[in-house]
Amino acid sequence: VSGFGGRWVTGLLAALSLAAAGCTPRPAWHGWAMEPALAAPDVALWGSGPRPLSLAHPDGRPTLLAFGYTSCPDVCPTTLSGWRRLRERLGADGDRVRFVFVSVDYRNDRPAWVGDFARHFDPRFIGVVADSLALLRMLPRFKADAGYVPLPGGHGSTVAHTAYTYLIDGRGVIRRGYDFDADPGGVRADVRRMLRAGS
Amino acid sequence: MRSDAARPAAAGRLTPALDVLALLAAGAPVPGCARRPEVRVEDAWVRSAERTSLTAGYFTLVNDGRVPLVLASVSCPLAADTRMHTTVRDRGIVSMHEVDHFDVPARSRLRFRPGGNHLMLIDLRTRLLPGASAPLTLRLGDGRTLEATARVRS
Questions:
Q1: A52 and chain B in contact, CB less than 8 A
Q2: A/B interface, count of CB pairs below 8 Å
Q3: Measured on CA atoms in the order A58, A59, A65, A70, is the torsion positive or negative?
Q4: Checking DSSP bridges between strand B79-90 and strand B117-124, what pairing results, if any?
Q5: Is B16 among the domain residues?
Q6: CATH code for the domain of B109
Q7: Helical H runs in chain B?
Q8: Is the pLDDT of residue B12 over 90?
Q9: Each residue's pLDDT tens digit, B47-86
Q10: A182 touching chain B per CB within 8 A
């Protein structure tokens, strides 16, 4: 009996020493932290709905946000189809997260189109357009960039934009960023962690 | 040449003779049978486009031969125009650029995949629904063409 007890005490001591050394299995965050973490700005973003969306008036849910444009055939659909899979994997928790796709192509994208474009991937996704003034206020907060880049030979222009997915907490503070092709399991784990912490 | 991505869902209904063909198409080793062509298209797919007139296509061009190749162009009869683009990433900022041609060295693979090289299918003539297929014709620098069937998926 004393031998069993001795092993138990040894195990306990080992567990305590691991805890003291910071080795308890605490999951790490994924992507990267936005430092300093800034609040999303109060700008009106128009989509299909009768009222504009403002990120500065959050509804308490965490938000995943990405910049793009509707005639983007490669990166933006990759982001949105990744979000769709993420939302499916979140199950019931998917309703506790807001997904917002922000078009930076204010010259060509109409709000209703962007709403349609986002809903094509999931009916609950929100698609909005940021006009040039909104972008001036938004992009620095997200440490992002977007704009029209002339094509060589004067053949029109193409849209360049930051392709990260951002995680905004329920109070409207931009917390984390992820590459558009980041491991979706990592984003999902972070969203769940934020939900558990009450955002 | 036919892509191995063509209609995999139908495999369950095939006769035994066609099963062998399906195995060949899937690249399974079958004793006594000819090897796969040295130059071939694999994993061709096109992203579904139900509401937009523009979408992207992806594939891998395999060159197992000893001779370097040039991919000069790709066409798809379902689009008014098909161009080869690449997505360039610079500190998180992405933009697309048209590419005139791609060099495919001997014994290498040229990959078109999301976030990198991709086909731009412009002014689609039909809605592309998941499960449908889209024919692609790849034209090489020496004038040869390769036919592939891209699966449409979301």
A1: no
A2: 66
A3: negative
A4: antiparallel
A5: no
A6: 2.60.40.1890
A7: 16-25
A8: no
A9: 999 878 899 999 999 999 999 999 999 999 999 999 999 9
A10: no
Pairing of the two strands B102-104 and B69-75: antiparallel
| B72: closest CA of chain A, how far (Å) | 20
Take residue A106 and report the two structure tokens written for it: 């204010």
According to the model, what pLDDT value does residue B33 have?
Answer: 58
- For residues B70 and B46, what is the distance between their CA atoms, to the nearest angstrom? 22
Scanning A35-121, the segments in alpha helix (DSSP H) are 75-90, 111-121
pTM above 0.90, yes or no: no
What would the pLDDT profile of B88-143 be if each residue is shown by its tens digit? 999 999 999 999 999 999 999 999 999 999 999 999 999 999 999 999 999 999 99
**A71 and chain B: CB distance < 8 Å anywhere?**
yes
The owner of tokens 């937009």 is B52
Domain count, chain B: 1
Which ipTM value was assigned to this complex? Answer: 0.78
Question: What b/e sequence results for B6-32 when a residue is b if at least 16 CB atoms lie within 10 Å of its CB, and e otherwise?
Answer: beeeeeeeeeeeeeeebebbeeeeeee
SS3 for B10? Answer: helix
Residue B18 domain flag: no
- Choose the mutation target among B96, B121, B129 for the interface with A, i.e. most A CBs under 10 Å: B96
CB A181 within 8 A of CB A86: no
Alpha carbon of B25: minimum distance to chain A alpha carbons (Å) = 28
- Domain holding B44, by residue range, is 39-153
Cα A137 to Cα A119: distance, rounded to the nearest angstrom? 26
DSSP structural state of residue B152: E
Q: Does some domain include residue B146?
A: yes
Does the bond joining A36 to the residue before it have cis omega, within 30 degrees of 0?
yes
Could you tell me if residue B17 is inside a domain? no
Note whether A74 contacts B52, CB cutoff 8 Å. no
Q: How many residues does chain B have?
A: 154
